[in-house]
Design a protein that fits this description.
14% strand, single chain, eight-stranded mixed beta sheet, 8 strands, 329 residues, alpha/beta
């Protein structure tokens, strides 16, 4: 067992989405919980990030850190056992050929989604909405306006998580309060700004799933699609980090009047990257729920989380551990 530090450091987490690769983020989360040195104040999540966020928050609420670890493991095991997903790239490509020409309103008129079943069997959302220990910010994209909608803890529901995870070629848009939503990754993967305005902690740890950098030029069709997927689902995050850099510049170079400085939070950004760890995986594997594969993703995430803590714990509360200009812009 890891030795728990005497004083825990309060942080926020920003969890990217990326299908079954969310099991990598599960591993990172588990390593943080096992370590015991972090107090997670708020979590911003998109798609699989929203899933991990609500399962963590509910587990923490009912059973502390150990409860969160147990519930995250139980959820991913339950999801794998549901029989959804694709066992190999060929099966995925055949399915994609069908969904590319027929919409989910046609091939899935009853909007069947086993993923939802695994979620509601794991999380009691009525109880979760009363949670005070974790602030949740779950992103979805409004289909008609194209704007991001951020759902908070008191609004959390299975529909909200389904909306945050709704890939439009696979599932029908999710209706909530008269509006329809698709995957939040189109407008924020994940969104950071609620963590700036709605929490006290200055530290934001981004847990990436989609590699930002990938060497070489893709030439085959599936390679091109894979790289476009990564670029698309990183674009909104990079734009938001550019805004963070701009605000930091205003503060550090004295461009603001002193009376305005207390209204700004000097955010400290940290990053658990996935560029090397998940570089060997393609978009097709994001739809695989094979249990050995999920366990391998978990192991990679757990190792990455532990290594990140060893290298960066000392920076928390003091300074950013990443050079945003160099690494993202």
């Amino acid at each position: 067992m890891a030795t728990r530090p005497a004083k825990r450091k309060r942080v926020n987490l920003a969890l990217q989405g990326g299908g079954s690769h969310g099991a990598y983020a599960w591993g990172v989360l588990d390593s943080f919980l096992e370590d015991g040195g972090l107090e997670i104040e708020g979590i911003s999540g998109t798609s699989a990030g929203s899933v991990n966020a609500v399962v963590y928050a509910y587990g923490k609420m009912i059973g502390g850190a150990d409860g969160a670890r147990e519930l995250l493991a139980a959820f991913w095991k339950r999801l794998s056992a549901s029989g959804t997903g694709f066992a190999n790239p060929r099966a995925f490509r055949m399915f994609k050929m069908v969904t590319g020409s027929v919409s989910p309103y046609q091939w899935n008129p009853f909007n069947w989604n086993p993923f939802r079943d695994a979620l509601v069997e794991t999380v009691d959302f009525e109880k979760l909405r009363r949670c005070k220990s974790t602030k949740l910010f779950l992103a979805a994209t409004n289909v008609e306006t194209g704007k991001a909608r951020i759902f908070t803890t008191p609004e959390a529901s299975a529909d909200v998580v389904m909306a945050s995870s709704c890939l439009p070629f696979l599932f029908q848009a999710v209706e909530i309060e008269g509006s329809h939503y698709w995957d939040g990754g189109y407008m924020g993967n994940p969104v950071l700004y609620p963590l700036f305005y709605e929490t006290k902690s200055r530290d934001v740890i981004i847990v990436h799933i989609n590699p930002i950098e990938r060497p070489g030029v893709p030439r085959l069709a599936h390679e091109i699609e894979n790289r476009l997927n990564e670029i698309t689902f990183n674009a909104s995050l990079i734009k938001e980090l550019r805004a963070v850099v701009f605000v930091q510049k205003l503060v550090s170079e004295g461009w603001l009047k002193p009376e305005y400085l207390p209204k700004l939070k000097n955010v400290l950004v940290h990053s658990v990257r996935a560029d090397k760890v998940l570089l060997d995986l393609s978009i097709e594997s994001k739809f695989s729920l094979d249990w050995p594969f999920l366990q391998e993703l978990y192991r990679r995430g757990h190792d990455a989380g532990r290594e990140w803590l060893e290298a960066n714990r000392r920076h928390l509360g003091r300074r950013s551990s990443v050079d945003l200009r160099a690494q993202f812009l």
